[in-house]
């Protein structure tokens, strides 16, 4: 349970954590976010998350609400006040609040709205899920063309996850008009081909440049494993030896079924589980 939420410079009790009714994040989806893993009170890959937040803000010309040092102080304080040992931090920055108007507002006249929420998770539950693996449902990718910007415009992802849930799947994979997988509704998509090659889509505008994806690529280099950065089709994924998703918190989560078709022998892949086990050896663990 989150006890305090950081809202615009104050740590307020959860039940009193509000932003303005005319916040542009609420009216226009004019906001960006980050989700970071907290592991044993430390922020995992903080530098990469804050770098990506800066980039998302920059791409949308939203003013940086605070310095890097201030972000680091605020994030640590939110973890501390909520006594989170293992869990996640949710950071959201919107352009700010003003009477509803499509145009932004003259530069420098809006103060961005900042919210940070900490939440505890049970890491054992995620490990238990990884031992079972998850099912995927594929759905058409109906999102906009700048999925590299981590905006809160998440309705297509929410609808995709609902559709997946209706068929007993935990995650949806978006598929582009050429039949290639772009990414998961809230994760990046990977396969290990029948001849043992790791494949994931290049980080262009059609996918989010996942922090977990980047850190996993560091791990692959350390392990001397080659990666093919290219798009793969749904048919190739169904014929793969292994498949998995990556995202903050899920780390490497094995995929055992895609649209009802078992992947490999239908159990989590050995390479997927090995990468999951080694992930935190290479990730950054920021001191609190
Ligand atoms: N989602 N692709 C999409 C569309 C995502 O929403 C996410 C993360 C990722 C993986 O990124 P990272 O490895 O940096 O978590 C890829 C977060 C977890 C969410 O929306 O809850």
Structural class: alpha+beta
Radius of gyration: 19 Å
Strand content: 25-35%
Named CATH architecture of the largest domain: Alpha-Beta Barrel
The main pleated sheet reads as: 9 strands, mixed
User: What's the CATH H-level superfamily name of the largest domain?
Assistant: D-amino Acid Aminotransferase, subunit A, domain 2
Order of helices and strands: EEHEEHHEEHEHEEEEHEHEEEHE
Mean pLDDT: 97
Cofactors, ions, other ligands = N-(5'-phosphopyridoxyl)-D-alanine
What is the CATH topology descriptor of the largest domain?
D-amino Acid Aminotransferase, Chain A, domain 2
User: How large is the count of helical segments?
Assistant: 8
Terminus-to-terminus distance: 20 Å
Please give the CATH class of the largest domain: Alpha Beta
Would you count the extended β strands for me?
A: 16
Low-confidence stretches: none
Number of domain modules: 2
Mass-distribution shape? globular
What fraction, in percent, of the residue positions are helical? 25-40%
Question: What can you see in these coordinates?
Answer:
- The chain is an alpha+beta fold.
- It folds into two domains: 4-121, D-amino Acid Aminotransferase, Chain A, domain 1 (2-Layer Sandwich), CATH 3.30.470.10; 126-286, Alpha-Beta Barrel (D-amino Acid Aminotransferase, Chain A, domain 2), CATH 3.20.10.10.
- Helices cover 30% and strands 28% of the residues.
- Strands 7, 8, 9, 10, 11, 12, 13, 14 and 15 form a nine-stranded mixed sheet that branches. A seven-stranded antiparallel sheet has the order 2-1-6-5-3-4-16.
- Strand 11, helix 6 (211-223) and strand 12 (227-229) form a beta-alpha-beta unit.
- It is globular.
- 39% of the residues are buried.
- The structure holds N-(5'-phosphopyridoxyl)-D-alanine.
- The site of N-(5'-phosphopyridoxyl)-D-alanine (PDD) has 14 residues, from strand 9, helix 6 and strand 13.
């Amino acid at each position: 349970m989150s006890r305090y939420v950081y809202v615009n410079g104050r740590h307020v009790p959860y039940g009193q954590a509000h932003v303005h009714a005319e916040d542009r994040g609420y009216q226009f989806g004019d906001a960006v976010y980050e989700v970071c893993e907290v592991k044993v009170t430390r922020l995992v890959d903080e530098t990469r998350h804050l770098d990506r937040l800066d980039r998302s803000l920059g791409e949308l010309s939203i003013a940086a609400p605070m310095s890097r040092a201030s972000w680091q102080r605020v994030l640590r304080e939110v973890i501390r006040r909520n006594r989170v040992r293992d869990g996640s931090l949710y950071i959201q920055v919107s352009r700010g609040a003003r009477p509803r108007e499509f145009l932004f507002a003259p530069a420098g006249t809006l103060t961005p709205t900042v919210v940070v929420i900490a939440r505890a998770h049970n890491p054992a539950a995620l490990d238990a899920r990884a031992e079972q693996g998850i099912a995927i449902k594929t759905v058409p990718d109906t999102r906009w063309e700048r999925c590299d910007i981590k905006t809160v415009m998440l309705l297509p992802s929410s609808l995709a996850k609902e559709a997946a849930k209706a068929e007993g799947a935990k995650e949806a994979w978006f598929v582009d008009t050429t039949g290639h997988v772009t990414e998961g509704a809230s994760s990046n998509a990977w396969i290990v081909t029948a001849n043992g090659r790791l494949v994931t889509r290049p980080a262009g505008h059609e996918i989010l440049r996942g922090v977990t994806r980047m850190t996993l690529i560091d791990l692959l280099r350390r392990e001397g494993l080659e990666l093919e950065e290219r798009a793969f089709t749904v048919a190739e994924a169904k014929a793969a030896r292994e498949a998995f998703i990556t995202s903050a918190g899920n780390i490497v989560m094995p995929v055992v079924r895609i649209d009802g078709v078992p992947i490999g022998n239908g159990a989590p892949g050995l390479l997927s589980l090995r990468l999951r086990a080694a992930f935190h050896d290479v990730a950054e663990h920021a001191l609190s």
